[in-house]
Amino acid sequence: MVFYFKVRPEAGDYTIFMGLDKYENEELIKYGFPEDIWFHVDKMSSAHVYLRLLKGQTIDDIPEGNKVNNVDIVYTPWQNLKKTASMDVGQVGFYNQKMVRTVRVEKRINEIVNRLNRTKVERTPDLKAEREAVNAAERAVKKQHLREKKRKEELERLEKEKQAELRSYKNLMVAEKMTSNKYIASTKKSLQELEEDFM
After folding, report:
1. Which DSSP category does 21 fall into?
2. What is the rounded (10 degree) CA torsion for 131, 135, 136, 138?
3. Which of 73, 123, 147, 155 is deepest in the core (most CB within 10 A)?
4. Which intervals of the chain form a coiled coil (predicted)?
């Protein structure tokens, strides 16, 4: 079971979620999204909490809130979570320690905690299916962009070919006209005589 919360639900802002236990934490670790930010109380047994950012948002856009006083909260992007076979269930490490941030929370802000608790929803999601659906949608968007790019490139190529053919045709016409003018000059015939020859 996964618990979901909304921060500023009236604005449709952030989604916060956490697993019921360490086994669900494993699934959350495995099927996270690039927009997910992972939180954990440092040096204490606590839930893994995730905040899903909106597209274009950064780790600097994160609001704060906690249930206890005087705790350090560590957080990092989901992609920075490192899981090895030797780790216990629910345990994680980090690929890049420089991407891990820590914030000291001196005092619990009850207003934020209470507001979050009012939005709590319990679900049993298929995290793998959700991740695969997002991956498929992203691949479809990339394919569409690639098709549009190829179509644009093909139209540009055809336009260049058309312009090259027009230039070639114009050059041919100029060459023929020059030949005709040379011919006219060399024959010493009048324009009327040349027209009669042509007819």
Report:
1. S
2. 140
3. 73
4. 141-175
Question: Furthest-apart CA pair in the chain: how many Å?
Answer: 110
Q: Looking at the predicted structure, is the pLDDT value of residue 170 above 70? A: no
48 secondary structure, DSSP code: -
- Which of these, 69, 79, 144, lies nearest to 110 by C-alpha position? 69
Rounded to the nearest 5°, which phi and psi values hold at 71? -125, 155
Q: How far apart are CA 37 and CA 62, in angstroms?
A: 9
Contacts of residue 73, defined as CB under 8 A and 6 or more positions apart, other chains included, come to: 39, 40, 41, 42, 64, 66, 102, 103, 105
Instruction: Say how many Å lie between the first and final Cα of the chain, rounded.
Output: 95
Over residues 94-147, the pLDDT tens digits come to: 888 898 888 877 776 667 777 777 777 788 888 888 888 888 998 999 999 999
Both tokens of 178, joined, read: 């020059």
CA gap 83, 29 in Å, rounded: 8
Query: How many angstroms separate the Cα of 62 from the Cα of each of 26, 47, 93, 193?
Result: 24, 18, 22, 91
